[in-house]
């Protein structure tokens, strides 16, 4: 499984509490514990929890789908996530799953708990919802993402018009009800939705991509910021759909983790001034 690509969830000070909550529910472990960044591993998958402050709030435009093998497993996760949470779709039997529900937990993260077949070894699959001006662009987004990253492919696509039970009048038949794609071996789902939700993509949930070198960093950055995307600070960007990515060279993490706190601090200060991360400038700051 590719742990160089993983979701980042934004928090206002309670990342550690949330990390402990998820590790207890999903029998995971905390792999990094700092005041700003918590890393956890659930089912061998990495998630980053970032104490970034009050600026952004997580919402259901990006949810985490958990694929379960038994009804008991579905019920177990549902009951625990329900503690202080809010139901978005009741736990019930649907045409696509015998037992499924959509819930927002007390930390604002939304989960789709789903009884069904795993497509890959990945158990938790981020799911992007294309709404408002992005509605109808899920396929275009998959094409962009699979073109950007190596070892990528578009998998099964179910369009609203394909359903045997008819489809919601509000949804164009050609729009995507559910689709699977992979970027560098990492699975994601996506869907179009024409409902006028009070939210959209924001920095509350982003995807982190760890890069091997400057060439790879430049390639991802240049493609994702082109054609209406935009650069932000510290390796963050928004693509043309407004979805947030963090393009992070592995060298940055090595330098920031140096045993000499003064050198590490110089690297952090240099990084804070950057939009795209420039490895040689980090090296210069480290050596200065």
Automatic annotation (TrEMBL):
Q: Which domain of life is it from?
A: Bacteria
Question: Which PANTHER family does the record cross-reference, listed alphabetically?
Answer: PROTEIN YJDN-RELATED (PTHR33990)
What is the official name of this protein in its record? PhnB-like domain-containing protein
InterPro entries linked: Glyas_Bleomycin-R_OHBP_Dase, PhnB-like
Q: Which residues form the PhnB-like domain?
A: 4-113, 122-248
Pfam families assigned: 3-dmu-9_3-mt
